[in-house]
């Protein structure tokens, strides 16, 4: 027993020595891998979809090659990334699809996160069927006719109903409520990750099978698997306020950047550059396609884009 | 890397066993006859009664909001958790800077020299090759990040484990209190640990390190306690008679005598820490795990493998070196110390040479990209196997049939059964195999999932586990028997098993989706792949350890190979086979949960959802239910006389 107490006191005193006396603020902690060996580092959070990887790849390339920073990337889902951003564990989120609760908490209330401006890309979520199927059955693109086709969208997982495939649990979705409130004979099957969802869509497309899926633009996969949107009841402001009662489609969201508040103030050239970083949907798709389809490393893809779009990015540096 | 020393007890006569089982079942039937009508009248049958659930959403959401709002002001965080996380950040950073400062040459040299001193020249070369491979694959910096995190986590785990183990080894009462807790901790899927630490520490390295410590410390504690208890009585008496104090006895006799167990504990702690360090990439651990995780986002198996291979190499090297340290005899200490000094000096010299040459980072021109060929191979495989294979159909059809004919009936069957019938079933299986204690624990654990309000998804997950375990056991026993009967097969299998056991589970996820589509089938497939090696290993070892005298006499009586196997080897290896089942169940559960990422749904999806949306109420409840399921499955498959050390 005495051994244990000695170990405990030793451990506690060692910790005190390590951290110095006084309060230890958990919300002001950079990643231990940051600023190693005197390099100035920026830590960017990457979300799991390729568009977000493309933003980060280009920002990282320019930060490293034009501004002389060292860049660490960490993959974190959207909501936890806000938390990490407020604690300074990451310095920036480059593509956010709208999280009003988080914004109210961290930007307006706690002021630990600062708004970093538009990314320049507009995002839209919807339901899609492959174009080869929509051409054969043009009326499938109206949600009112979906029940007619439910049997064609059946899979082993959807248990007798049509399958509406959703993706990663981290994405914004009202699909369960929509299926119920629009009285559709469909079962929402969650692929569980975007990677799984894309793999499954490509397999279906190879076999020219019909499928109905939750998907979003901008997305590189449209280049590989052309898809047509199914019209849902039109989106009006506030029609998705109550999660269980949603019976309308999804909005068009101008995607936003957010920076850690301290980084935004003292981040020097890197922060200024990230605030000015703004490009078009086409730019983003070009890089995404190189990464996801031609399997270039993000760095190689970013280099290719940077080499051919000097006028665009020169504006971000000035 | 399961290392087992089963003390094979003589199997009780089947007749007696049957008697006992029948008696237990009769008692159970009697209890059921009294209790079921009562339960039915009180709460109705069918699914879990609503009256018996506790809704934790409001308190959990409240707790999570409170933590986020008070993290930067409340003394509990400022003066306790804050220090913890600062300590972790500083130590990881310190180790990371040392590793970077030593440069690639220094780190490789140091690792090789340590391996040489501990385990000989062959392993030293292997170690150097492994580190060089990490650099070649372009993964040097992430490897160092993972290594830094691992070193800190393992050191803390060892300290915590040894302290707990000493307490358990020296005090009867503490041992009795600790053992069930440690046993339970060993069977829980790593994924369930992530949410609570994220809740307190947020995303990032501190949370990752602490989750790793919680996951990796128990084996060290168990084996330390075991080693101290197993010390030779006569030696201890001799030491005592020489008038040594209690502390001298501990330091000079008990701890040195427990050396083997301590090193085995270290080995298992390292293995578990490494697997957790990868899974912790989900909560921002960075390093190699994060590279695997990022590669999956772009469906890039090749890149995931490029980050997965260093993990496998690290695991194999660390395992071999620590295992060798456990087996090594005591060299002559004087000579050994000099050699250590030379080794250290050589390592420092190499590191300095690297610094002087200005070659600290792995040169970019020395990297090999393996992503493209691997992806081509995977694409080719999935193209040819997915559908349209003549006669047998493609993997997609199999997956569909497996889902429709096996998974659906299992799930629906479990969910249709009245809730009390499921509990009875668990009791009826657990009691004859184990004791009334294990049976009661199993029943209560399953009931807890109902109380938490996740009865249906829990049964869904359970059905996936059962299906995966069945497949695993069929394949595993068959392979194990083959390996036990032929040395060549075993030699060929060994590296394959090593790789499959240490490859991060995330790497499997995409190929299984490409082959089996999205749903529960790929989750089951990934679980089978992950659990097979352990089952094969334990089966092989169990069959090989069968008493040679018994085999000899069977042979002399003219039994054929098949007869020997059926009538001598398998019955005598029964404890090992039961252990294989138990391990299979635990490992399968761990991966079925991760199957939530490929459409497995149920509890796994809820846990992933909780992490992804920061919805801790959903995530924590799912995590707790996973823990209960793990506990239940472990107790149901746990033979009454389990006295084995379980591997990771």
TrEMBL record, chain A:
Q: Name one Pfam family in it.
A: OpuAC
InterPro entries found in the cross-reference section: ABC_Gly_betaine_transp_sub-bd
Q: Which Gene3D superfamilies did the record assign?
A: Glycine betaine-binding periplasmic protein, domain 2, Periplasmic binding protein-like II
- Name the domain of life: Bacteria
Q: Which UniProt keywords apply?
A: Signal
> S-adenosyl-L-methionine among the record's keywords?
no
In this protein, which residues make up the domain named ABC-type glycine betaine transport system substrate-binding?
Answer: 41-307
The signal peptide, as residue positions, is 1-23
What is the name of this protein?
Glycine betaine/proline transport system substrate-binding protein
Give the species.
Streptomyces rishiriensis
TrEMBL record, chain B:
> How is the protein disposed in the membrane?
Multi-pass membrane protein
PROSITE patterns documented for this protein: ABC_TM1
Membrane-crossing segments per the record: 94-116, 123-141, 147-170, 191-217, 269-288, 295-318, 338-357, 416-433, 439-458, 465-486, 506-532, 576-604, 616-633
Q: Which residues form a coiled coil?
A: none
Superkingdom as given in the UniProt entry = Bacteria
Q: Where in the cell is it found?
A: Cell membrane; Membrane
- Stored InterPro entries: MetI-like, MetI-like_sf
A Pfam family: BPD_transp_1
Which parts of the sequence belong to the ABC transmembrane type-1 domain?
143-322, 458-637
Which UniProt keywords are listed?
Cell membrane, Membrane, Transmembrane, Transmembrane helix, Transport
Family under the similarity heading: Belongs to the binding-protein-dependent transport system permease family.
Q: Which PANTHER family match?
A: GLYCINE BETAINE/PROLINE BETAINE TRANSPORT SYSTEM PERMEASE PROTEIN PROW (PTHR47737), GLYCINE BETAINE_PROLINE BETAINE TRANSPORT SYSTEM PERMEASE PROTEIN PROW (PTHR47737:SF1)
| Protein name (database record) | Glycine betaine/proline transport system permease protein
Q: Record the organism.
A: Streptomyces rishiriensis
Taxonomic placement: Bacteria, Bacillati, Actinomycetota, Actinomycetes, Kitasatosporales
């Amino acid at each position: 027993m005495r051994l244990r107490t000695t170990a405990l006191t030793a451990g506690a005193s060692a910790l005190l020595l390590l951290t110095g006396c006084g309060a230890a603020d958990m919300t002001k902690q950079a990643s231990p891998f940051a600023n190693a060996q005197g390099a100035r580092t920026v830590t960017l959070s990457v979300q799991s979809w390729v568009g977000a990887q493309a933003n980060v790849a280009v920002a990282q390339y320019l930060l490293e090659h034009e501004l002389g920073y060292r860049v660490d990337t960490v993959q974190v889902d959207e909501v936890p990334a806000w938390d990490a951003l407020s604690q300074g564990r990451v310095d920036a989120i480059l593509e956010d699809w709208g999280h009003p609760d988080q914004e109210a908490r961290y930007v307006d209330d706690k002021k630990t996160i600062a708004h970093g401006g538009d990314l320049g890309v507009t995002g839209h979520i919807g339901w899609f069927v492959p174009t080869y199927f929509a051409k054969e059955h043009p009326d499938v693109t109206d949600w009112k006719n979906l029940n007619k086709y439910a049997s064609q969208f059946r899979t082993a997982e959807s248990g007798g109903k049509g399958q509406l495939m959703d993706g990663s649990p981290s994405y914004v979705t009202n699909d369960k409520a929509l299926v119920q409130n629009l009285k559709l004979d469909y079962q929402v099957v969650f692929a569980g990750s975007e990677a799984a969802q894309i793999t499954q869509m490509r397999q279906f497309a190879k076999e020219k099978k019909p499928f109905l899926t939750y998907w979003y633009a901008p997305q590189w996969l449209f280049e590989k698997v052309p898809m047509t949107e199914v019209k849902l009841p039109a989106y009006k402001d506030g029609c998705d306020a109550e999660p269980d009662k949603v019976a309308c489609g999804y909005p068009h969201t101008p995607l936003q950047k957010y920076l850690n508040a301290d980084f935004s103030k003292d981040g020097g050239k890197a922060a200024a550059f990230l605030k000015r970083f703004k490009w078009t949907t086409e730019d983003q798709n070009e890089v995404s396609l190189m990464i996801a389809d031609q399997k270039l490393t993000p760095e190689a893809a970013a280099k290719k884009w940077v080499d051919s779009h000097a006028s665009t990015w020169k504006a971000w540096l000035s | 890397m399961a290392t087992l020393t089963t003390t094979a007890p003589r199997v009780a006569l089947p007749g007696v066993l049957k008697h006992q089982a029948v008696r237990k079942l009769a008692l159970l039937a009697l209890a059921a006859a009294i209790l079921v009508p009562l339960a039915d009248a009180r709460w109705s049958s069918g699914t879990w009664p609503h009256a018996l659930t506790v809704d934790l959403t409001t308190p959990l959401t409240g707790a999570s909001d409170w933590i986020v709002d008070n993290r930067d002001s409340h003394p509990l965080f400022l003066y306790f958790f804050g220090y913890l996380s600062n300590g972790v950040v500083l130590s990881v950073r310190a180790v990371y800077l040392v590793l970077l400062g030593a440069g690639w040459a220094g780190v490789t040299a140091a690792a090789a020299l340590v391996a040489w001193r501990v385990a000989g020249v062959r392993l030293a070369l292997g170690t150097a090759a492994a580190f060089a491979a990490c650099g070649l694959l372009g993964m040097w910096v992430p490897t160092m990040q993972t290594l830094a995190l691992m070193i800190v986590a393992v050191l803390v785990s060892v300290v915590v484990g040894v302290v707990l183990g000493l307490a358990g080894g020296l005090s009867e009462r503490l041992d009795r209190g600790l053992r069930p807790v440690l046993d339970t901790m060993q069977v829980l899927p790593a994924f369930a640990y992530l949410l609570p630490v994220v809740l307190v520490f947020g995303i990032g390295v501190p949370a990752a390190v602490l989750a790793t410590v919680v996951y990796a410390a128990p084996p060290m504690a168990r084996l330390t306690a075991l080693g101290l208890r197993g010390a030779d009585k006569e030696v201890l008496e001799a030491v005592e008679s020489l008038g040594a104090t209690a502390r001298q006895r501990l330091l000079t006799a008990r701890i040195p005598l427990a050396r083997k167990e301590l090193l085995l504990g270290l080995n298992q702690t390292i293995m578990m820490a490494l697997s957790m360090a990868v899974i912790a990439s989900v909560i921002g651990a960075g390093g190699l795990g994060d590279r695997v995780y990022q590669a999956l986002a772009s469906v890039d198996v090749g890149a995931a493998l490029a980050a997965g291979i260093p993990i496998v190499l690290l695991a194999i090297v660390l395992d071999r070196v620590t295992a060798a340290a456990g087996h090594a005899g005591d060299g002559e200490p004087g000579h050994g110390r000099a050699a250590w000094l030379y080794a250290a000096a050589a390592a420092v010299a190499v590191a300095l040479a690297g610094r002087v040459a200005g070659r600290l980072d792995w040169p970019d021109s020395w990297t090999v990209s393996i992503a493209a060929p691997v992806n081509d191979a995977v694409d080719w495989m999935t193209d040819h196997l997915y559908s349209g294979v003549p006669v047998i159909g493609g993997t997609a059809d199999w997956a569909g049939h497996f889902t429709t004919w096996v998974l659906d009936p299992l799930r629906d069957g479990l969910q249709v059964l009245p809730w009390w019938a499921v509990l009875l079933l668990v009791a009826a299986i657990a009691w004859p195999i184990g004791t009334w204690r294990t049976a009661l624990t199993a029943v209560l654990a399953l009931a807890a999932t109902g109380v938490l309000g996740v009865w249906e998804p829990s049964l869904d997950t359970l059905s996936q586990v059962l299906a995966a375990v069945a497949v695993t056991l069929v394949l595993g026993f068959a392979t194990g028997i083959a390996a036990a009967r032929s040395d060549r097969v075993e030699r060929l299998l060994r590296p394959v098993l090593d790789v499959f056991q240490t490859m991060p589970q995330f790497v499997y996820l995409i190929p299984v989706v490409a082959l089996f589509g999205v749903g529960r089938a790929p989750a089951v497939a990934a679980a089978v792949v992950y659990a097979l090696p352990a089952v094969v290993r334990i089966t092989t070892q169990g069959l090989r350890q069968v008493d040679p005298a018994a085999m000899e006499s069977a042979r002399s009586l003219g039994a054929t190979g098949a007869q020997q196997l059926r009538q001598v080897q398998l019955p005598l290896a029964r404890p090992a086979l039961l252990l294989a089942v138990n391990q299979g169940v635990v490992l399968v559960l761990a991966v079925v949960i991760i199957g939530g990422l490929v459409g497995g749904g149920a509890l796994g999806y809820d846990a992933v959802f909780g992490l992804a949306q920061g919805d801790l109420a959903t995530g924590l409840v799912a995590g707790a239910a996973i823990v209960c399921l793990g506990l239940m499955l472990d107790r149901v498959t746990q033979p009454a006389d389990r006295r084995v050390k379980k591997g990771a």
